Known about the structure:
By secondary structure, the protein is α+β, with helices and mostly antiparallel strands. The chain contains six helices and nine strands, in the order E-E-E-H-H-H-E-E-E-H-E-H-E-E-H. Helices cover 31% and strands 36% of the residues.
Amino acid sequence: xxxxxxxxxxxxxxxxxKLDGEKCFLRTFGxxxxxxxxxxxxxxxxxxxxxxxxxxxxxxxxxxxxKKILEGLQLLALNREFSFGIYEKDSEKLIGHISLxxxxxxxYSSAFVGYxxxxxxxxxxxxxxxxxxxxxxxxxxxKLHRVEAYIAPExxxxxxxxxxxxxxxxxxxxxxxxxNGEWVDHYMYAMLQEEYLQKKV
Length: 201
């Protein structure tokens, strides 16, 4: 059974959010995480490049990630985005990242979820648990109506994750994103709050 905890606490003046699961825990990034995040991104640059854009070299530096973390903290303060590190439960090692982003209030009351796992930790059910933790945050704590995800049809492992988490495929968005030189189709997946509540009964 999924155990989750929605903790809000202050650390060095910043608000952090921590979500606890069985295999992993999620924690929003703080300034001190920039170096570890840059290493995660750099180590997985080519592994993730199949379905994500390859960025300029300076994107993978501690300085660039520090700036992105600061931007994320500003959005977090407004409840507009929650950017989490995925940490292995036992070792507390950073093994991925997941975000609940583009949060909109009424009349939409929706958000997107996006995630990436370290290549050495795929296929262990950790990403699925991370998605479930973020979904619980979205529906139980933030009271959103809908959470969406875009996934390329060729990204079989990510499709497996999102479907195990309970999302339904709603359609195909043609040539949605420009990734590494070509326009790529993506499936749209979504879960509604009422579906989440039905699964909790």
